[in-house]
């Protein structure tokens, strides 16, 4: 039997599945109530964490207009996940809450202060999804002419993270003395300047906040390129990944663990969670029909193409959806700006390494589900597949998301009240929390 694994949930502060028969938030989740309900449901099901993704621009990469992004609601609108993470933590007692903050747009001092405050508010349940941004439009909102090349982005991110870590350490655990005899709140000899001297972030410190329960909130990262994986292996406590099938998942996990060793770390200090999007039904036929309905939604293709166009800067909407994807090198024209990431991972290559002749439309349907495994069926059947994959990959767990990025309470119930109880009965996922912090949840097994 596979050893127990961790469960996370991947979502965003944006419109729910507002035009579906089971629309929950009706397209307006902006008061946070839909997401605090989600947090409570995830805690009832003993999830380790919820992760809120983010993007910081309304990009016009698809078709040279913002129309597609706004029409589909993919990547925009997005409200700020950090205050939402505080609400979600306040609505729960155990669930970890991970928020996304881009190293390109947030200065390290404000990242450290925000993370420290969130970690204190949540009693040690905060995590940081470290992203370097993927979009020229995001860079322009940071005052840059364009997104820096990948190596420069990750070099900047490394300096950024080092400064954040130093700032989080700037208050010793015993700095707050509250000595009534001397009327001293904090001992100034235990609060240290940072004096970072790097070229991008010469920050003096110390931080203004007292040390938070975890000291350093959980660092999460999802680099897919070799540079991104090396960065994740060096810095992250939790690595998030998408791969196409168990063999590719194993390759990613083994590679990240190898890179962690190269960076002088114990690979068992890292957890790798794979993104999956189960499609559940009371019968396999029902689940297949639900998937077919989602794939046939009038905006499904547009959503996926808009998303990948924004990631890569390549206008995929200009391509013929019924023709195979041109070679990625040709599409990206030698740029290190973005990667075709999951889209290419889902273009099954043949024995000679050539991309499959799958039309872009089909490729987008495969990659658009965001799932590392093809999980369609009853809760028992999907649990079988997760169990088998965890055994084969040696995996640490799964990050559950919705197929085609559209979230409804109906879907949350299917997972938390259908799939998770089966996994719990098999002893594969937790049935109670024992640790007090997010870091503690992940260290438990
Ligand atoms: C599960 C997952 C979550 C991600 N969340 C975000 C996000 O919230 N914001 C963002 O800008 N990028 C996000 N990314 C993109 C990654 O940070 C990264 O840029 C991408 O995987 C490409 O890897 P590379 O940077 O090594 O090229 C996410 C990727 C994955 C797989």
From TrEMBL:
Gene3D superfamilies found in the cross-reference section: Luciferase-like domain
Positions annotated to bind FMN: 54, 100, 154, 225
Transmembrane domains' residue ranges: none
MF-aspect GO terms: monooxygenase activity; oxidoreductase activity, acting on paired donors, with incorporation or reduction of molecular oxygen
InterPro entries: Diverse_substr_monoxygenases, Luciferase-like_dom, Luciferase-like_sf, NTA_MOA
SUPFAM superfamilies given in the database record: Bacterial luciferase-like
Keyword Oxidoreductase on entry: yes
Entry keywords, A to Z: Flavoprotein, FMN, Monooxygenase, Oxidoreductase
Residue ranges occupied by any Luciferase-like domain in the UniProt entry: 32-395
Family named by the database record: Belongs to the NtaA/SnaA/DszA monooxygenase family.
Protein name, entry field: FMN-dependent oxidoreductase (Nitrilotriacetate monooxygenase family)
């Amino acid at each position: 039997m596979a050893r127990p694994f961790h469960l996370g949930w991947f979502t965003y502060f944006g419109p729910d599945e507002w035009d579906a028969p089971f629309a929950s938030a009706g397209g307006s989740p902006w008061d946070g109530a839909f997401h605090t309900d989600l947090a409570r449901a995830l805690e009832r099901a003993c999830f380790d964490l919820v992760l809120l993704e983010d993007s910081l621009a309304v990009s016009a990469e698809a078709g040279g207009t913002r129309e597609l992004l706004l029409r589909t609601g993919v990547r925009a609108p997005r409200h700020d996940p950090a205050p939402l993470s505080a609400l979600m933590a306040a609505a729960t007692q155990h669930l970890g809450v991970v928020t996304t903050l881009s190293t390109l747009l947030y200065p390290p001092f404000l990242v450290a202060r925000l993370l420290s405050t969130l970690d204190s508010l949540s009693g040690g349940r905060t995590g940081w999804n470290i992203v370097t941004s993927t979009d020229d439009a995001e860079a322009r909102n940071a005052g840059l002419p364009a997104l820096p090349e990948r190596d420069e982005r990750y070099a900047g991110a490394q300096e950024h993270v080092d400064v954040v870590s130093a700032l989080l350490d700037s208050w010793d655990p015993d700095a707050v003395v509250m000595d009534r005899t001397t009327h001293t709140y904090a001992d100034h000899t235990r609060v240290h300047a940072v004096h970072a001297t790097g070229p991008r972030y010469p920050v003096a410190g110390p931080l203004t906040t007292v040390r938070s329960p975890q000291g350093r909130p959980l660092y999460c990262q999802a680099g897919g390129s070799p540079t991104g994986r090396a960065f994740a292996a060096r810095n992250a406590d939790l690595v998030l990944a998408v791969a196409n099938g168990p063999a590719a998942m194993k390759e990613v996990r083994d590679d990240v663990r190898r890179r962690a060793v190269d960076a002088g770390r114990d690979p068992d200090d890292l957890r790798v969670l794979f993104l999956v999007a189960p499609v559940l039904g009371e019968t396999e036929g029902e689940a297949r029909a639900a998937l077919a309905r989602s794939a046939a939604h009038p905006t499904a293709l547009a959503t996926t193409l808009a998303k990948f166009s924004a990631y890569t800067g390549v206008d995929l909407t200009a391509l013929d959806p019924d023709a195979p994807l041109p070679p990625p090198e040709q599409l990206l024209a030698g740029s290190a700006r973005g990667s075709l990431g999951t889209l290419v991972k889902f273009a099954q290559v043949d024995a000679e390494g050539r991309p499959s002749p799958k039309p872009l439309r089909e490729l987008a349907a495969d990659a658009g589900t965001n799932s590392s495994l093809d999980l369609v069926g009853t809760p028992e059947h999907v649990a079988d597949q997760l169990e088998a994959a965890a055994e084969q990959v040696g995996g640490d767990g799964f990050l559950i998301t919705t197929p085609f990025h559209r979230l409804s309470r109906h879907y949350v119930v299917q997972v938390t009240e259908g799939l998770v109880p089966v996994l719990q009965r098999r002893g594969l996922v937790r049935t109670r929390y024992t640790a007090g912090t997010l870091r503690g949840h992940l260290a438990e097994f």
